[in-house]
Amino acid sequence: MKAPIGKPIKPVSSGRNFLFPDKIAPHVLLMFFALAVQLVAAVISGIGYSLNENIFCLVGFALFTLWFIAMLIIVNPRCDEVFKNQREGIKRGALVIIVIFMTIGISELATAVLVAPIVQGNNANGDFAILLRQMEQGFKYNDSTALERQAAENLLIDKNPYAHANIITAMLKYNGASARITPLRTGRLINVFPTPSETQLNEIWDIAIHHPSHSPPEIESNVCYPAGLFLLPAPFIAAGVKDIRIVFIIFVVAGLAYATWKIPPNRRLLFIAFAAISLELWNCLADGETGSVVFPLLLVAWVSIDRNRLLSAITMGLAVATKQTAWFFLPFYLILLWRKSGMRQFVTAASVIAGIFLLINAYFIIIGPKTWLSSVLAPMTSPMFPNGVGIVSLVVSGFINIRSSIPFAVLEAIVFIGGALWYARNAKRYSFAGPILAVLPLFFAWRSLLNYFFYIQIIVIACMLTDEDTSFVALETQSKRINRERSASLCREGEMQG
After folding, report:
1. CA 292 from chain center: how many Å?
2. For residue 416, how many C-alpha atoms fall within 13 Å in the half-sphere facing its CB?
3. Rounded Cα gap, residues 332 and 308, in angstroms
4. pTM of the model
5. Residue of 327, 320, 310, 308 lying closest to 359 (CA atoms)
6. Which of 183, 228, 202 is nearest to 383 (CA)?
7. pLDDT per residue over 129-144, tens digit each?
């Protein structure tokens, strides 16, 4: 008896256009929706912190939670099968998102260059004027950027950057924004919670600038990062670059250019469009966010993991020797390499990464081991105030009253270990989940700053677009495979019934 054959699953197809290649899979298109959610969440959270409006902080937290959920759904291999019938609608939605955020980006640039100076010159008041003043502050050095620039210059005159760090002199020399220092829960701020007011910070700052040779205990003054953060920009500073943000731009453009080069030609424009509307990337460059240095290194490391393993290991080594956020990526990177290529490649890459980290940091460890260690561990050991867009925003906004960072550290560790164990079992099938799982623990941390998350989706979509099997032909291939398996199964059932 011949068994009936079920209705086959039709492969998805679409016409070509100037932006979207033929047969582009839904999970790539859905990345634009995730990007939109993150950008809206960033704006709402920023408004909440700027205007001290708790409801905005709560909405921002909810949207960032939604963003993580969306990203985890997108990297699930079943995503294409679930959304295959909505592909054309998703494509049109992605195009709308590109147009909207491209327009917003141009408007933001025009506001910063043309409108803000006029409003500030007229000494206008109101919420809009406050937001513009916040924007103006964003174009000045923050404490990390000022300390990085100071460290690079100290290195060039043969001073130990860790031993000669001074946040007050750095901010004064480079015209940093006093509102962008990192306050500590000690001294005059020991009983302040959840965050010090602008008035309190101004009082501490005004006293500090009268004695700039001594940093007050209420302000973080350590170079809180591994040596790569100032070693990499040092040659540019020596060559005469006056603004370290130019160095950041060079690094970011180089990283994006490499990823674009590795992406097949018919997909490059899509990646360029995604990077262009990643407004937080460009805002962080204007802010002087030090994550702009580690982002391109992580991008190259992840994109080249299957194409140039030596380059991949070198850039990952530079990343972990530059900023601690890269340490969260390292286990997932090594797990993916092990699951894809075996233990030998794992050991080789781990050795290269460890060697680069030691090569960059060994000198500073030798000349001042205690100073180096206390500086690099300062983000974990200094009594910092809660801050961020993760669950700690519930503390900052006053919805819950937890004054200790320990519960958040425990949650962070549980999520990190759980994510690593899960990825060790599922890395082959869920390879794109690695960068997301790497930053997920930071969402539960006492300090879950936006700059920990803004570049993750660029890394993920770059990996998707360079992947021949899953980005553009997988859905059609999967449909054919399912049809074959369904036909074979029905035939076997028919033979058994016969």
Report:
1. 9
2. 19
3. 18
4. 0.87
5. 320
6. 183
7. 555 555 555 567 889 9
